[in-house]
Amino acid sequence: MKTLRVGLCGLGTVGQGVLELLQKNADLISLRCGRSIQLVRVASRTEKPQVDLGNAVFSTRIEDLLEDADIDVIVEAIGGSDTALSLMHAALKSNKHIITANKALIAEHGNILIPLALAANLYLGYEAAVAGGIPVIKALREGLAGNQIDRISGIINGTSNFILSAMSQSGDDFDTALQDAQKLGYAEADPGFDIDGVDAAHKLSILAALAFGMPLHFDSVYMEGISDVSVEDIQYARDLGYRIKHLGICSMDTKGLSLRVHPSLVPSGQMLANVEGVMNAVQIESDALGSSMYSGPGAGALPTASSIVADLIDLARGNTGDMYYNNEATMVGIEKIKTAYYLRIPAVNKPGVLAEVARELSSHGISIEAVTQRERNASQDVAVSWVPVIIITRQVMEDTMNKALASIQASDHVVGKIMRIRVEAGDTHKHNVG
Amino acid sequence: MKTLRVGLCGLGTVGQGVLELLQKNADLISLRCGRSIQLVRVASRTEKPQVDLGNAVFSTRIEDLLEDADIDVIVEAIGGSDTALSLMHAALKSNKHIITANKALIAEHGNILIPLALAANLYLGYEAAVAGGIPVIKALREGLAGNQIDRISGIINGTSNFILSAMSQSGDDFDTALQDAQKLGYAEADPGFDIDGVDAAHKLSILAALAFGMPLHFDSVYMEGISDVSVEDIQYARDLGYRIKHLGICSMDTKGLSLRVHPSLVPSGQMLANVEGVMNAVQIESDALGSSMYSGPGAGALPTASSIVADLIDLARGNTGDMYYNNEATMVGIEKIKTAYYLRIPAVNKPGVLAEVARELSSHGISIEAVTQRERNASQDVAVSWVPVIIITRQVMEDTMNKALASIQASDHVVGKIMRIRVEAGDTHKHNVG
After folding, report:
1. CATH number for the domain that contains residue A180
2. Which of B319, B323, B431 shows the shortest C-beta gap to A295?
3. Is there a single domain that holds both residue B32 and residue B78?
């Protein structure tokens, strides 16, 4: 069968990973897909690449790839937005398939790009855009294609998970953990994209579009980052039997679709609670299979290349069926989401305060699941003597909680900002019986 | 596009699950694969099925399905061996694709059936044969197709995992846990197939064949069941930081391929150690991706149907590329496998015994990682006063360990059979950094 001829744009981390993997496993890949996959051209703005390109022709002009009629597919490994987007449009116009790891581009421009590719009968592969090397897009698109998907919750940003894991394991505060992540190359110099949840929201919107057959709804994702989570919260949560994880969650029910990215308390016994460091994991709840989970490295040159090469192999084998079916649903805003809550209320250390808080919650119909009143830490930054009151509530609608918290926050007995973190006990992937 | 027309053989648990799922999600499936999948005929030896067959024609003759030229694909949900095998051969002769959940059949007859199907350009789908609804065959065949696979270790028999989990959680002994599993429908009346490791060996040989592009080597799988694992072993292991799991493991290195199914100590912090009850999980180590894990329900009507319908959807979409490439490798026997060991040595309770055991191990070049000498339990079934000496060794070749244990077992100070369980610390899927 005819060789699949590849043009690679970009020789950064991802591009070099693709190059390395296609070279290293060339024979294996040929055996597995019954035809060879050959890198014929590489384009990069770097004048002299310090890597062995094999038989591939190097160019500093992207146009050389587009103009080469022998190239079947473009691997976009430029990253960023503008140039990559232009490249995608140009590739489609040049009748070339595209494979990319660019989550921002798919999340923000997929509603244009995907229909364009479908109309042109071209493959647009983006397995690498979500959860790095974990084949979770394939699981949704194919492995679980007979299932109605109800909910997806995932640890889909390795930087945030690394920071929360480090805070949990070492007791370091957020800033120290962030600096460690930066030293280790797990966080960018400007980490906002990761720690504020934008990257996770990009990935979540892609998963939701596939799961529910819908256009991408990146703009509808509710986002909260991890920078307000304190070491104390992590410790209190642990004492109550929870871990704090930064989750991307999408769920569909009769009210509609909700999309949200925020820190969450997850019961310690659940698999998702035990995903540490830069690892990613995606848990899918679906009607036939129930709860299944997919975990592994969410970033890095070779894990990302693993997904890009899997897309190339799919293309080589002719496995390019999409499952775009243009469904639509009402979007459910965060204020209509029902979850349990963890509350940390810095309160004056005197009798009756806890009773007052409980009364206020109760007056809004909010039940308390667990409560502990802790000695505060050594820091003396608040003038009056106070203790953090830690409460886990039962499930309640977010807007009801907002009203209750506004009342409690206004009380004379509350001496600082109330911390509130949602508790996600709704998933059932305990891997446990009874 | 033309409807994919399905004939279903068998209306037991699996067959009814397929029927239910194809009916319930018919519209969704059509949308997702761009053509409809229609059940046109159902065959079962049961005269009057108590289920709604929709528009499907019922028959007690399997031949009616084979003779129907309109049927594209046969779903084999008969189970067992002889009839199912005849059906497969007949289906291939009748130019029909086949989808099955029958692990025994694929493991024991796949070397005939798979090449026959390939030669006839027919699809033989068996995603449901391993790990129930978890799309792990798809992950190996497609998602990780760019990777060289190094090792797979999996909890692939839900019955055994349920029993070990129950023993661990409740402190019940093996027989009680087995009876509970039988009451709950998680174990057969004759549970040998599951608890002796045969079922896991079937599945492991299928995973290995896909991972390494080899024929099926069911006969080469080393098998040990779980019936010798005691509650005490589970407790001692936990105290030392391990869980006992029944694992299927295949690994390839320069010496060759090893295939083994046996109880294993897994470090408590690893994801695999935390898969409980009837859940399954498969962990794959590969060169580009590193360690990834796939977990979920390993059995049951609808999870199994989820995989069968996924195979139907692959067929409907034309995604039937195999990765059979007829590789071969030397088989490495269990005696040449290097692992660490957990040893429970019932020894006379007097000074110097531990030193003697340590000396004997040392004389075979075996180092000790950890040792504890326990008060024995209340039971007085051994006449002399004795204690179990618990040892975790460093890695050593199995045949060296066999020699050392033969010497130790022969000692006057050892009063009962030595228990030995392999320790699998080799996998790296801790989902942890640093």
Report:
1. 3.30.360.10
2. B431
3. yes
Q: How many other CB atoms are found less than 10 A from the CB of residue A142? A: 27
CATH number at residue A121: 3.40.50.720
Report the share of chain B in percent with pLDDT over 90: 84
**Are B144 and B253 in a shared domain?**
yes
Distance from CA of B135 to the nearest CA of A (A): 5
Q: Is A360 within the bounds of a domain?
A: yes
The catalytic residue positions of B are 203
DSSP-based three-state secondary structure for B223? strand
Instruction: From chain A, pick out residues whose CB is under 8 angstroms from the CB of B212.
Output: none
Q: Are residues B365 and B410 in the same domain?
A: yes
Nearest CA in chain A to B285: A296
Pairing of strands B149-155, B222-223: unpaired
* A165 and A278 within one domain: yes
Beta bridge partners of A41: A7, A57
- Give the one of B133, B142, B275 whose C-beta lies nearest to A314's C-beta: B142
- The pLDDT-based confidence of A431 (bands split at 50, 70, 90) is very low
Tell me which residues of A are annotated as active site: 203
Min mean pLDDT across B38-52, B306-320, B331-345 is at: B38-52
State which residues form the domain around A34. 4-125
Mean pLDDT, all residues of chain B: 92
Phi, psi of A166 (to 5 degrees): -65, -40
Co-location of A412 and A291 in the same domain: no
Closest CA in chain B for residue A432: B276
| B419 inside domain | yes
Q: What is the pTM of this model?
A: 0.95
d(CA A220, CA A332): 9
Strand (E) or helix (H) holding B295: strand B290-297
Q: Could you tell me if residue A364 is inside a domain?
A: yes
Interface contact A274-B271, CB threshold 8 A? yes
Q: How many domains does chain A have?
A: 3
Taking a contact as any Cβ pair under 8 Å apart, which residues of chain A between 117 and 136 contact chain B?
A: 127, 133-135
Cβ pair A32:B309 closer than 8 A: no
Contact B201, B246 (CB under 8 A): no
